[in-house]
Design goal:
Number of strands: 0
Radius of gyration: 20 Å
Number of domains: 1
Distance between the termini: 22 Å
Helix content: 40-55%
Shape: elongated
Largest sheet: none
Structural class: mainly alpha
């Protein structure tokens, strides 16, 4: 795998991880005991810490990409192992 392909795949994992990590650790103003600002959505976070989000996202993306790369190198799960349509497996040798 070329390094540019690995970087592109890592970035895909990173942006996917943002949406996975985003809801964890967020508290609304009501949950935090703060005052509600007029015009603010009830579901809006009380405080947003971008550094913590970036750190968590990078950690999750790195672990996910590491598992992907290990599978790519070792061939643990291949397309031949995945039978989505529950038909008999064709010999792909």
């Amino acid at each position: 795998m070329q390094w540019t392909s690995a970087l592109a795949i890592y970035l895909l994992f990173w942006f996917f991880s943002v949406f996975v990590v985003l809801p964890f650790g967020m508290r609304t103003t009501h949950e935090a005991g703060g005052e509600h600002v007029p015009g603010q959505a009830d579901s809006a976070p009380h405080e947003f810490d971008a550094r913590r989000l970036l750190l968590r996202t990078t950690a999750v993306a790195t672990v996910a990409f590491g598992l992907y790369y290990l599978n790519y190198v070792n061939g643990w799960i291949t397309p031949a192992n995945v039978n989505l349509f529950l038909r008999e497996r064709a010999d792909l040798s």
